[in-house]
Design brief:
The protein is of the alpha+beta class. It is 25% helix and 24% strand. Helix 5 crosses helix 9 and helix 7 packs across helix 9. The radius of gyration is 21 Å and the shape is globular.
């Protein structure tokens, strides 16, 4: 399933093909599956205990970073802008697909022997790049692509090394794949599994989901940065590959609920599952909108460490992914067996 999800293209605002894969996979497991006006896919699984009126929200975003067609030159080359955060330095010579028809293209620049000395000393700007789709003129290119078309990386899901996986869009198809697995089980409480849109351009889908569902508790599943590589000081290693899923404390968009974060960490340790805390506060994810929805939602974040994130060659270790899945399942079982957890946020002292 993870191979199927990562090899499909779903740039922010263009998640339909990914949504269709997920919808087909989960429909038989759920009480209902709906798509809201923004494009979020909400899978509802009614709890088996009618006396439990609480709602738990699981969330993972379907969208990935990519590019968008902004102009077609007279000679048939494609000019583009980024959709989501992409380092322009990773783009040169990359193979891409343009538009719904997945027109193949290559990102290029003018040859090095035609560049001025000053140009060779600086990183190439995105504005100076183009995509070559093999068209000879603007008219020919316009028959194949249009302004506003989404552009995705052409990258295959590949096993390598000691249980490593290379793929695009591990952020956040890893979370989507785990959500799918969670829906195969039955729970006492009402479960809402939300596959959200437009996370990479402002956490937009999760804002709509959280407002409409009004959950009592939420857990966000993510793929997060792993910078344990040469040239990066150890204190800047957000996560370490092979040390298990990462539990967030705080980032630029949210502050995780301490009760839930500590619970996740304790569950992992008590069950001999490798686990780590995310050790930097960079970035953000859907928790940023979920935890401030309505009166506030106790929210935690658990992530799979991924090197080279937001590129066509993200890398993760399979064991980290499996341990994340195990920990999420243990969390759901714990919630079932400890109903007092639902009330733990109602007894806080007023400041």
């Amino acid at each position: 399933m993870l191979k199927k999800l990562t090899e499909e293209i779903g740039i922010s605002g263009n998640e339909k093909k990914v949504r269709d894969i997920i919808k087909q996979e989960i429909s038989s497991y759920c009480t209902s599956v709906t798509v809201d006006r923004l494009g979020n896919l909400i899978a509802y699984k009614k709890g088996t205990d009618a006396t439990i009126s609480k709602k738990l929200m699981l969330s993972a975003h379907m969208d990935e970073v990519g590019l968008m067609v902004t102009n077609i030159t007279d000679s048939g080359f494609i000019k583009f802008k980024s959709v989501g955060g992409i380092d322009p330095r990773i783009l040169l010579s990359k193979s891409v697909f343009v538009g719904e028809k997945k027109m193949p293209g290559i990102i290029g620049i003018k040859a090095i022997h035609l560049q001025k000395p000053a140009e060779r000393k600086n990183a190439v700007k995105m504005a100076d790049m183009y995509i070559d789709i093999g068209a000879k003129s603007k008219e020919e290119a316009q028959q194949k692509v249009s302004l506003g078309d989404a552009i995705g990386f052409n990258s295959r899901y590949t096993y390598f090394g000691n249980n490593f996986i290379k793929a695009k869009a591990l952020d956040d198809r890893v979370g989507c794949a785990i959500l799918i697995e969670m829906l195969k089980n039955t729970y006492l409480f009402d479960l809402y599994a939300c596959f959200t849109v437009q996370e990479e351009v402002g956490l937009r889908g999760s804002k709509v989901c959280a407002y409409n569902i009004a959950p009592d508790m939420a857990l966000v599943l993510e793929g997060t940065t792993c910078s344990d590589v040469p040239g990066v000081k150890e204190h800047l290693h957000a996560t370490t590959m092979g040390e298990g899923p990462a539990i967030s404390i705080m980032d630029r968009a949210s502050y995780s609920d301490k009760t839930l974060s500590r619970l996740l960490y304790t569950l992992a340790k008590d069950n001999d599952i490798k686990v780590q805390y995310k050790r930097t506060t960079f970035g953000g994810n859907d928790a940023g909108e979920i935890h401030t929805s309505r009166e506030g939602v106790p929210t935690a974040v658990i992530s799979v460490p991924c090197r080279y994130i937001h590129s066509p060659v993200s890398v993760m270790q399979l064991e980290d992914y499996k341990n994340c899945e195990k920990l999420v399942q243990m969390f759901l079982v714990y919630v079932e067996n400890n109903p007092k957890l639902w009330e733990s946020w109602n007894n806080r002292e007023e400041v």
